[in-house]
Amino acid sequence: MTNQASIAALLALIHQRHSFVISSHTRPDGDAIGSSLGLMHLLQAMGKDAVVAFTDLIPDIYRSLPGVDSIVTNLPSIPLDAAIFLECDSLERSSFNAQEFEAVRPALTVNIDHHASGRAFANFNWIDSHAPAVGAMVYDLAIASGVRISRAMATCLYTALLTDTGSFSYAGVTASTFGMAQHLVECGADPYAIAQSVLFSNSPAKIRLLGTALSKIHILSLGRCAVPCQDSHSHDSNIAWCAITVDDLDRAEATIEDCEGLVSYLIGMAGVEAAIFMREFSGHDGYRLSIRSKGRLDIASVAEHFGGGGHRNASGCNVYGPLRDVTDRVIEQLRIASARLTSAPVEHPPIPATLLA
Ligand SMILES: [Mn+2]
After folding, report:
1. How far is the centre of ligand 1, averaged over its atoms, from the C-alpha of 251 (Å)?
2. How remote is the CA of residue 32 from the centroid of ligand 1, in Å?
3. Which of 91, 180, 200, 235 is most exposed, with the fewest beta carbons within 10 Å of its own?
4. Terminal alpha carbon distance of the chain
5. How far is the C-alpha of 315 from the C-alpha of 227, rounded, in Å?
6. Element (H, E) at 266
7. Are 328 and 243 in contact (CB under 8 A)?
8. Burial of 254 (0-12, 13-18, 19+ CB in 10 A)
9. Neighbours of 280 (CB within 10 A)
10. What's the gap in Å between 159 CA and the centre of ligand 1?
11. What helix, strand, coil percent values describe the chain, rounded to 5?
């Protein structure tokens, strides 16, 4: 189904129903929270009952989003017509307790996702791996619905877009991403205020934890990069990683959510093509991995190997065992992904028609 057909079909399903519950994955990020609240505002503007449910705490940096106070931690006990999952590949990955959900399971489940690893687990599935954020898909739905985009809706969707594109810096950002951002600002989103909340409001504990993480970076050379590049920088291909233990978190008085985004500093180094940030589980039995890559190196497949998922350049998974084993196994998978890349034909972007004329 094309995006247009998916949007039309989804709007028809929404029009026929009245009460909705919306949720996303556990440890919700800016896209999970922003797109959920944005969709809640959209459904409410369409005259529907809509509630957002998250079992996990909402990180401080998203607490000023319009509607955040109405987020519930348990499924509403009233009968619901539909449950909408945003960027989840299964009920298990969602913030819903599976048993609690089965007890009230609405007749319709909807899945809206932009992950390459997205799976059609719901009754209605709309997966667009080209969308820069699920918030962008909710924006397209809002435009197609004909509803006026309120300041509240715009603020939530802009936050989703800003955070899931790494402040408009990731692959997948196109002219239409900026077109969307422009329209959301015209509808009342305040880019300065949102950036202040989301980018410049880190806790001192998070910055202390960053210090620890930066002091524990390891870099491993994968040798010379075999992919011919058009740019002039060095073709060294390195992997960077670091691991944060439960003790590190305690010493910094940091929380699990303070680990969010630290992997960006690792992938931010010249010559580093893949980066892994590892956080030890409280049970000391393994690590939560955030993986990033540059260019065509596909680390969604690396995360999928360990039962996780994500995008080509950003993914995550859980790996169990002692640190040495975890590191060895992940690096082996990265080498495999890198070897696959070097043996693949090089893609060249099409030459613009204006240059051929
Ligand atoms: Mn997302």
Report:
1. 31
2. 6
3. 200
4. 35
5. 22
6. helix 263-267
7. no
8. buried
9. 19
10. 11
11. 40, 20, 40
Task: Output the six-digit token pair for 18.
Answer: 């009245």
Whether the full predicted model's pTM is greater than 0.85, yes or no, is: yes
Rounded distance between C-alpha atoms, residue 311 and residue 175, angstroms: 20
Q: What residues does the ion ligand 1 have nearby, CB within 5 Å?
A: 31, 87, 134, 164
Q: 233 alpha carbon to ligand 1 midpoint, in Å? A: 30
C-alpha torsion angle, residues 39, 42, 48, 52 (rounded to 10): 30
- 13 CA distance to ligand 1 centroid (A)? 23
Task: Catalogue all structural domains in the chain, each as residue range(s) with its CATH number.
Answer: 3-199 (3.90.1640.10), 205-343 (3.10.310.30)
301-338 burial code (b ≥16 CB/10 A, e <16): bbbbbbebbbbbbbbbbbbeeeeeebbeebbebbeebb
